[in-house]
UniProtKB/TrEMBL annotation:
<dbReference type="GO" id="GO:0003887">
    <property type="term" value="F:DNA-directed DNA polymerase activity"/>
</dbReference>
<comment type="function">
    <text>Poorly processive, error-prone DNA polymerase involved in untargeted mutagenesis. Copies undamaged DNA at stalled replication forks, which arise in vivo from mismatched or misaligned primer ends. These misaligned primers can be extended by PolIV. Exhibits no 3'-5' exonuclease (proofreading) activity. May be involved in translesional synthesis, in conjunction with the beta clamp from PolIII.</text>
</comment>
<dbReference type="InterPro" id="IPR017961">
    <property type="entry name" value="DNA_pol_Y-fam_little_finger"/>
</dbReference>
<keyword id="KW-0548">Nucleotidyltransferase</keyword>
<dbReference type="Pfam" id="PF11799">
    <property type="entry name" value="IMS_C"/>
</dbReference>
<comment type="subunit">
    <text>Monomer.</text>
</comment>
<feature type="active site">
    <location>
        <position position="108"/>
    </location>
</feature>
<keyword id="KW-0808">Transferase</keyword>
<dbReference type="InterPro" id="IPR024728">
    <property type="entry name" value="PolY_HhH_motif"/>
</dbReference>
<feature type="binding site">
    <location>
        <position position="107"/>
    </location>
    <ligand>
        <name>Mg(2+)</name>
    </ligand>
</feature>
<dbReference type="InterPro" id="IPR043128">
    <property type="entry name" value="Rev_trsase/Diguanyl_cyclase"/>
</dbReference>
<dbReference type="InterPro" id="IPR022880">
    <property type="entry name" value="DNApol_IV"/>
</dbReference>
<dbReference type="Pfam" id="PF00817">
    <property type="entry name" value="IMS"/>
</dbReference>
<keyword id="KW-0235">DNA replication</keyword>
<keyword id="KW-0963">Cytoplasm</keyword>
<comment type="similarity">
    <text>Belongs to the DNA polymerase type-Y family.</text>
</comment>
<protein>
    <recommendedName>
        <fullName>DNA polymerase IV</fullName>
        <ecNumber>2.7.7.7</ecNumber>
    </recommendedName>
</protein>
Amino acid sequence: MTSARIIFHIDMNSFYASVEIANHPELKEQPLAIAGKTEERHGIIVTSSYEARKRGVQTTMTVREAKKLCPNLVVRHPDFSLYRRTSDQLFEMLTEYTPLVEKASIDEGYLDVSAQNKIHPLKLAGNIQNRIVSELHLPCSIGIAPNKFLAKMASNMKKPMGMTVIRKRQLADLLWSLPIGKMHGVGPKTEQKFNSEGIVTIGDLANHDPILVERHFGANGRRLFELANGQDDRSVDPSAWERYKNIGHSVTLSQDTRSLKIIQDTLHQLSAKLAFQLKKEHVASYELIVMIRYYDWTTVTRHKTTVQPLRSLEEIENLAFSVFRSNWKGDAVRLLGITLASFQSVSASTKQLDLFSYQKDAQSERLINLVDQINDQFGEETLLPATRLLDKKRMGDSFGM
């Protein structure tokens, strides 16, 4: 008989803003927004405190729009090094409760606490939540469920400082009435496709004919059907984050060159590879590193952190070329490389910055679109980069409450 699993999903509330408040107590109870280019009226709000949200400030607004709604809004530029340090402290703390901790992004992760049979799951979750507040001065919501999907859905239900349990027998009451677009894993394009077939709520999908779902939406539709019915056997994988801590590609040119056209063409090719990997991993990047090796083997690397997430070929290429131009000393170039880091899942990134525009950017990437069409029809992992296949090869229900 299979042992019941108990999975926690820890979701930090308004993480960037909360970290700023924790480190600058004078900001407490003030409406706060984190934005790029804070000195410009058209800077974009990345995230905001709950006090700011109560006054109508929303992600993707310009600073100018936000200040019309909230004249006393405090606007800060993001401090990614601080956010990463705080995230490291958080996950180090979580591993004290179980070795089975999977970092899903800078501000969310899964814990498998099935072996913690000496303390009730609700009490354990409460202890973790209170400790995060006490030691890091940060709020979080915790979802408790028999699998990762339901735990993720549960953590979204009460914010800030919420705690929600979803048992499989509660699906109809807690989950099925929600709009299909609220389902983790359903993006705006998929939501439109479902709506066109009369699938408006999660319950509509859960109670649909699975054969028709697969016929109309492919293997990915069938997977979403299973999730809507609470079926998810994915394990909590502690090594998942480390495998994708950074991704990079470099190329040695056929001959040393000063040609900007050759250099830009090379950066374009490298960017296309990286955009493909980001799309397949469903992550966005907030850090780009350009490596330039000159004819005499002198090598320089330059880092650039971003407020807006990088995901499309065009975004990666434009930033990489800009970094190159800013740091190129005019000598002949022998090798070029681009590395991306500081990843966040797309679903998590949408909490802090709207990523839906990246659908439009990707239209120019014919290869990515072709792969997407195949994966939509036959399943999310029909075509994978070779590195993913190697990773998958290495990787090896109910709550009872």
